[in-house]
Amino acid sequence: MLPSFPRAVLIRSDCAGPPRVSMDGYRRRHLVSAGEALRLDCPVIDSAQAGPIVTWYKDGDEVSVGWERYRVLRQDALYVRDVEPRDSGVFICRATNGFGSVDVNYLVLVQPGQQSPSRHTT
């Protein structure tokens, strides 16, 4: 009879681990005018096959389905339509997998848009 040995699982360090931030094209600060659309991408690289779970936060509050002008797109990007000055703040993309998580911070500043000239009807 052969002796039994405990089984070991080999995990390659280059294949498994928490998500990492990709700095390609990443800009921390975004300045937009009121009325424009805003898209923030979550620039993470994940070695897990299933991909990370991405959660977006604005000023510490999780962006939820009920936020009327906010949408999380399939590519894990956050889209905000018709931005307003109150949309200014700190946005965080948190990417999590079974090995850990990483946060990507954005500072969004919304400046008031130009008022269109009023039309007078006579």
| Structural class determined from secondary elements | mainly beta
| Topology, number of strands | 10
Count of helix runs: 0
User: What's the pLDDT, averaged over the residues?
Assistant: 83
Strand order of the largest sheet: 2-10-9-5-6
Q: Give the helix level as a range of percent.
A: under 10%
Order of helices and strands: EEEEEEEEEE
Largest sheet: 5 strands, mixed
Radius of gyration, in angstroms, nearest whole number: 21 Å
Oligomer: single chain
What's the architecture, going by CATH? Sandwich
Give me the CATH superfamily: Immunoglobulins
What fraction strand? 35-45%
How many individual domains? 1
Any idea what the shape is? elongated
Low-confidence segments, ≥5 residues, pLDDT <50? Answer: 8-13, 115-122
User: Might you state the CATH topology name?
Assistant: Immunoglobulin-like
Would you give an account of this structure?
- Helix content is about 0%, strand content about 40%.
- β7 and β8 (about 80) form a beta hairpin.
- The chain is mainly β and about 120 residues long.
- Strands 2-10-9-5-6 form a 5-stranded mixed beta sheet, with no helix packed on it. It has a 3-stranded antiparallel beta sheet with strand order 3-8-7, with no helix packed on it.
- The chain is elongated and about 50 Å long.
- It has no helices and 10 strands.
